[in-house]
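STRUCTURE:
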């Protein structure tokens, strides 16, 4: 579908472009929201949906966009859509679609920023550790280190503990970052878990990206509101001019009736005096 969209964007108006858009719309209507957002040129799709007349297929794609989870509206999607979007050519029924998506993403970003914008802490509140509930509880706590003794997990010996530490240190760590080290005293083998700053630093990086994206979208929202206000004022002025023009034509017409005796239906004012 990406190739079709790129070709569509280069065609002049006509039968070929209409037919190709119809094909693209049918393919898009069959996609899930996740698949739709994964399309590299989804911004172009949004552009053509907004600029084309309404029919059942286009409406289905439009509704898919409206129902998108804002977390799926990745920055590239909206920014590409903003670049190719020209509100002046939009279909009246869909002119508000892009501002709606921007508004949803802004709300989601504000919530994410509030969640991430915290002072440093060893707490990893969404950490997951599928192998052991007590380790998961530790990762979500403010503690920095933990020793896995017999009460947490019993190891057969140092090699067993070392293998366990190696596995989970290199395993994908979900919403957490830590290191593990095995040791043994006499016959008792343990694993020491030490949290690292990697997870927090990644959160700080994500936070900076969210703030930058929010600034760009808020700037777009301000421009859109300003443009809408200008269009509304222009519409009011145009309506006022039309009303004044109608009044002026009406006065001219009535004036001709009163001053022209040959005008059909015209009557002169009476000049008869009475005592």
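SEQUENCE:
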């Amino acid at each position: 579908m990406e190739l079709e969209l790129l070709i569509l964007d280069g065609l002049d108006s006509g039968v070929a472009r209409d037919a190709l858009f119809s094909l693209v719309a049918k393919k898009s209507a069959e996609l899930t929201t996740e698949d739709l957002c994964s399309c590299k040129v989804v911004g172009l799709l949004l552009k053509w949906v907004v600029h084309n007349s309404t029919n059942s297929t286009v409406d289905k794609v439009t509704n898919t966009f409206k129902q998108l989870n804002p977390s799926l509206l990745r920055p590239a999607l909206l920014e590409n859509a903003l670049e190719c979007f020209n509100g002046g050519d939009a279909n009246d029924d869909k002119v508000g679609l892009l501002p709606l998506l921007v508004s949803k993403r802004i709300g989601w970003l504000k919530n994410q920023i509030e969640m991430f914008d915290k002072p440093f802490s060893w707490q990893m509140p969404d950490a997951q550790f599928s192998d052991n509930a007590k380790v998961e509880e530790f990762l979500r706590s403010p503690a920095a280190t933990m020793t896995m003794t017999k009460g947490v997990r019993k190891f057969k010996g140092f090699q067993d503990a070392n293998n366990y530490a190696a596995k989970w240190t290199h395993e994908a760590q979900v919403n957490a970052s830590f290191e593990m080290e095995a040791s043994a005293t006499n016959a008792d083998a343990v694993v020491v878990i030490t949290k690292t700053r990697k997870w927090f630093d990644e959160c700080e990086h994500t936070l900076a990206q969210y703030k930058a994206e929010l600034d760009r979208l808020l700037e777009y929202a301000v421009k859109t509101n300003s443009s809408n206000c200008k269009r509304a004022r222009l519409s009011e002025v145009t309506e006022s001019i039309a009303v004044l023009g109608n009044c002026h034509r009406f006065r001219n017409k009535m004036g001709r009736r009163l001053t022209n005796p040959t005008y059909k239906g015209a009557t002169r004012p009476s000049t008869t005096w009475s005592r």
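REMARK: Confidence is low (pLDDT under 50) at residues 229-238, 265-275.
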